[in-house]
Amino acid sequence: MIEYKDFLNLKYTPKKDDLIVLFKIKPSKGFSMKDASSRVASESSNGTWAALFPPEHIKELSAQCYDIKGNYAKIAYPGDLFEQGNMPQILSSIAGNIFGMKAVDGLRIEDVKWPEKIIKSFMHPQFGIEGVRKIMKIKKRPITATVPKPKVGYYAEEHAKIGYDLWLGGVDLLKDDENLSNQKFNPFEKRLRLSMKMREKAEKETGEKKSYLVNITAETDEMVKRAKMAKDYGNEYVMIDILTAGWASVQTVRKKCQDLKLAIHAHRAFHASFDRNPNHGMAMKVLCEIARIQGVDQIHIGGMGKLAGEKEEIKENWTKCSSSSNNETKNMLEQNWFGTKPILGVCSGGLHVGIVERLFNMLGTDIAIQVGGGVLGHPDGVLAGAKALRQSIDAYMSKIPLKEYAEKHKELKTALNSWGYETPI
Ligand code: CAP
Ligand code: MG
To answer: Domain range for residue 103?
Structure first.
């Protein structure tokens, strides 16, 4: 017989191939942590509400809750419970029905420890930080990106012209916004074609490498077509809204990008619907891990700007993207990445030149800085906005205080006079 209590075994020692999940659980009234944790382990592996009488071998696939501390429970899942290389299947198990169980008032996946076998069953990042730096020919400084604002509405010609000004002003990557794909006012292929022309011109004039995070988000076959188009027009990148598109489609596009040798920029629009509530859903750092395992090359990790997500969370996201391993903490499991390339954390959301320095101080310079409104809203225009952003990076890299650097760089000075050092809301 198997019933709920069989999924709790505080004497269990996890095996090498086990996948471990650290849950934060708020049991519902009348349930203890042990009750709730064993139910979570059961429903997320192979149990149900009724006692069952299966053949003995089936028990070998049962998850075991083996550690409970306060509201934190660790559950180990046998490796064979999972289909290798199938992220939807893994998530339907560990992040499936359990969020709706009446036995819990709140349930949050704080972290996952991925075993080597599962990590190695996916494609991994093709480029990662090192590869992206090579593409962009940028050795040490943070990589910069800018998204034209307003988010949507520009005609393709206008969009490409803005791209030209941004590149000319010193920005490395032109980025599409998450809700710009192939609308009638700005068709995908036309925008790509015109932007690539502008890119060529900007590269010639600046002598710097420039590229375009072109948003291919759509139905999967269409994304593959658009990735091919990006390659045909000579681009190095595609951008996918990985959460609204869905993990399965990310896997498909990742495969295609191997043949096309394209880097993937992952936008995380939708993440806050399940990572913002500290007592329910899934932590952003787990999304970073999944994205890295599946093989994106860079992903948004937050920026302490206009959007929720504070220091500790951003640091954890960055760690999961950029480290080769990490130790265990209260809400983080240890992880060895078994050689998986580190990916670039992209800081974004309400940033401007007055507040980017704190991100470098906190995370170092192996990051990308994505600034939309803080460039496009510059009182002297797009070109000046782009110059100001680049100046703020140059100031940091040459260890000159921003204020002092601004004395000799008028675009930076104007931006600082406009927005000061305040975080926008
Ligand atoms: C930034 C941005 C990004 C957000 C998403 C925007 O523009 O393009 O989508 O950064 O958030 O539309 O808001 P601004 P996150 O620079 O004008 O804010 O990076 O946290 O996923
Ligand atoms: Mg955006």
So the answer is: 7-119
Given a contact cutoff of 8 angstroms between Cβ atoms, the answer to whether 219 and 251 are in contact is no
Kindly give the number of the ligand 1 atom that is closest to the alpha carbon of 424. 18
Cα 156 to middle of ligand 1, angstroms? 21
Sign of CA dihedral 330, 333, 334, 336: negative
Q: Give the number of domains in the chain.
A: 2
Residue 107's pLDDT band (cuts 50, 70, 90): very high
* In contact, 142 and 75? CB cutoff 8 Å: no
Statement to judge: residues 209 and 60 lie in one domain: no
Together in a domain, 348 and 381: yes
Q: What is the CATH number of the domain that holds 218?
A: 3.20.20.110
Domain membership flag for residue 187: yes
- What span, in angstroms and rounded, lies between the C-alpha atoms of 321 and 380? 36
Tens-digit pLDDT profile for residues 363-417:
999 999 999 999 999 999 999 999 999 999 999 999 999 999 999 999 999 999 9
pLDDT at 228 over 80: yes
- Residue 410 Cα, ligand 1 centroid: separation in angstroms? 26
- Ligand whose nearest atom lies closest to the CA of 376: 1
Q: Are residues 165 and 192 in the same domain?
A: yes
Give the DSSP per-residue string, 229-264: HHHHTT--EEEEEHHHH-HHHHHHHHHHHHHHT-EE
Within 13 Å of residue 171, how many CA atoms lie on the same side as its CB? Answer: 32
In a domain, 412, yes or no: yes
Whether 50 and 172 map to the same domain: the answer is no
Residue type, 394: D
Q: Which of 171, 348, 425 best tests ligand 1's pocket when mutated (most atoms within 8 Å of CB)?
A: 348
- Is the pTM above the cut of 0.70? yes
- Determine the Cα–Cα distance for residues 419 and 377; give it in Å rounded to an integer: 10
Q: Are residues 208 and 250 in the same domain?
A: yes
Same domain, 113 and 147: no
Name the domain boundary from 92, 119, 146: 119
Q: Is residue 1 part of a domain?
A: no
Q: Ligand 2 centroid to 178 CA: how many Å?
A: 5
